[in-house]
Write a structure and sequence with these properties.
8 strands; alpha+beta; 8-stranded mixed β-sheet
Amino acid sequence: MVDLPTLSNNGIILKPLMLTHANDLAQACQDGELWKINVTSVPEPDKVINYINTAASTPDRKAFVVIDASTGKAIGSTSFHDILPFAKRLEIGYTWYAKSYWRTHVNTTCKLMLLTYIFETLEYQTVGWRTDIGNYRSQQAIERLGAKKDGVIRGNRVRRDGVISDTVMYSLIKSEWLPVKLALTKKLNEAH
């Protein structure tokens, strides 16, 4: 199983998610009332402790907290999940950030750190992403990373509102990594 490191770059720190991050995350999910968005996994503020405990007790999920180094505050979370060590494949998901960090360098920085770790340290072959068919913001963000759309799995998830929905699947393979890494690095350099 994958052990989680602490990663740091560009003013963002990723470290293993722990109960000590609960208060910050409760504040972060209130920034934009993110739990009200049906197509995300953001917890309600009073359910953050359950969210952290569920992440910790799910066998093939390893959760990170995302910290803004300038404030020391947790601003969101992301996870490795559906980890297949023999196939050298895992997915990145359960990703969310306080709304004030949307469309900033945060997501690009996090993905660059995670993908570098996955492809260059773990030497995995494939990284996947999945998102609700109605989550256009997430689909665009995944596509901006350079991932390829694999297809749609119909009727395999239930949204918060009880609606059965489809999932859009994406992936990036190791042979595609270098140009993606260069593009993400260039994007971050241009942003500063």
